[in-house]
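Work package 3, deliverable 3.1, input record:
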Amino acid sequence: MPTFPSRPHRRRRVLAVASGGGHWVQLMRLRPAFDGAEVHYATVDPASRDMVAPAPVHIYPDANKDTRLRLILATLRLTVIVLRVRPDVVISTGAAGGYLAIRIARLIGARTVFIDSIANTRQLSVSARLAQRAADLVLSQWPAVAARTGAQYRGAVL
Amino acid sequence: MIFATVGTQLPFDRLLLAVDTWASMHRDVPVVAQTGRTATTYSHLTCLPQMDQRRYADCVAQARVIVAHAGMGSILTAIEAGKPVILMPRRADLGEHRNDHQRDTAAEMAVLSNVTVVEDSATLCTAISAALTRANDPALAARSNVASARLLDAVRDFIWSEDTRSARSGFGLRPVLRA
C-alpha cells in the first residue's frame, strides 16, 4: 500500500462522477483509491446503487453536446448535487456530466481531477479538453496523448 | 450462452446481423443481445434494447463468449470476468459512429489475451466458433478489477493533498501533485 500522510488529517469528502457504460466501469476500478474518504457518487443509472452501497449515489440525466435540453437539466441537477454534497474533492472519469460537475464544484472551492477514458487512445475527448480549462488536474491514460495535449499521465485503469 | 452487446448510444446492425447469422447456424447455442435502439429484427437472438448494470453483469457472468463493439465498458467488464471477448470496432465510413476511435481502441486492446479483434462479418462468425473452444484456456483467468497501482496512488495523493483551497480564492491555481 502507498504511504498516507503520517500526521492525522481532516476527513475528505469526495464526489466521484461518471456517466454510464465505460465511464462508470473505469470509476469503479479507482475505488481502492477512495479508502478513508467519505465518498458520494453521481451517475446516470439508478441500478448502479447496488454496486457501491452503502455509499450515497446521486442520479443526473445523461447528456452530451448533441442533447441541449438534457445538458441544461444535467447542469441544474449537478448543481443541486454539488451544493448538497459540498465535496472537498471531485473526481470524474467523464463524460459531459463529469466536466459540468467540475465546473460547478470549482465555484465552491473543491479541488478537481478529470481522468479521460482509456478509450481515447489518440486524442483527448471533448469533455477532457473543456476540463483542461476548469480542473486542477486532467489525466490521459496514454503517455503519447498526454505529451501532445498538456494533460498529465499517471498510469491507466488497466 | 453467447452475449452480444453494442452499447446504448448508437445502433450497430452490422455486428448484430453477423451474430444473428452465426446463431441461425448454431440453434443449440442461445444468444442474448443488447441491441440499443434499432428497427431491425433479429430472428435468432433474444434481444433487449437496454440493460441496467445488474442485468448486464448477469449476462456477462453467464456468457461463454462475449461479442461487443469496441466500447470500454464492454471490454473491461468482459476481461474482469475472464471471458473471451470478440471486438468489432464501429466504422465512421459506414455511419456506425461519429469517428473511428473504436478502431484505435480495438487495436490497443488486441494485446490482451482475452481479446480478438475482427473487422468483418465472416471473420466474426469464425471467431465465435473458435472462442467457444477456449472455455478452459488458462489465459482467460479473471483479471484484477482495479486500476494500476500508479493511477490509484495518483488519485489517492490528489484526494489527501494538503493543497486545499478556500472558496473563490483559488482560480488559476495549477495542480501540485506529489511525485
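Chain B touches chain A through 51 residues (CB under 8 Å).
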